[in-house]
Amino acid sequence: MTSSRETVLNRIRAALKDVPASERPEDVAVDRSYEHVDHAPERERLERFIERVREYKAKVKVTRVEGLAAAIAASCAARNVSRLVVPADLPEGWAPAGVTLIAEPGLSNDELEHSDGVLTACALGISQTGTVVLDSGPGQGRRAISLVPDYHLCVTFQEQVVGLVPEAVVKLQSAAESPDRPITFISGPSATSDIELNRVEGVHGPRTLEVIVVTALDVE
Q1: CA distance 172 to 163
Q2: DSSP string, 136-203
Q3: 151-193: per-residue pLDDT in tens?
Q4: How far is the C-alpha of 39 from the C-alpha of 41, rounded, in Å?
Q5: Phi and psi for 39 in degrees, rounded to 5?
Q6: Residue 106 and residue 33: Cα distance in Å, rounded?
Q7: Domains of the chain: residue spans and CATH
């Protein structure tokens, strides 16, 4: 009986059948005439990011840097968070008062699942798609901590928001070249549909995503 893996590989072989054995990837020109840089003003780019994050049914809170600690504490209080997963290098001042921090590394999946949520930084925000990107960099921890807990509270700074996906890809190159830094693109809470097209949330990641945008601009 042919496995799914063999079925896929056979289709790939059939599709490549007419490719000369001597042909190299660089021999085939790839059309890269798409936009590489978003020239929109920073305010417009940030407002578009916030709008599209919300369109994905994620929550967004906007604050200034001096109000970040209070914003994190308020978000945790609103959800009655008492046990919060955090990366080992959580930035100073982010820890909400009255909440037990469960710090990485070394947490089991069971410990992650029975927490009330996770707090992380991010690598980038993408205005074009309303996407938050984690690359296992500072303040983010390992990939599992942003996938297993049911609630993800993610902090994104104004200067981290780029306009287009190609801009994000360029900025993520060093992480992509590292075998120890998996990259996660997050566009809203985890969601899928069953065979009857009923939306089901929280199957492959957090049921609730909340993004705190830190900016000096007057946006909502």
Answers
A1: 14
A2: S-TTT--GGGGTSSSEEEEEEEGGGEESSHHHHHHHTHHHHT-TT---EEE-SS-EEE-TT--EEESS
A3: 999 999 999 999 999 999 999 999 999 989 999 999 988 777 7
A4: 6
A5: -95, 10
A6: 46
A7: 40-214 (3.40.50.10420)
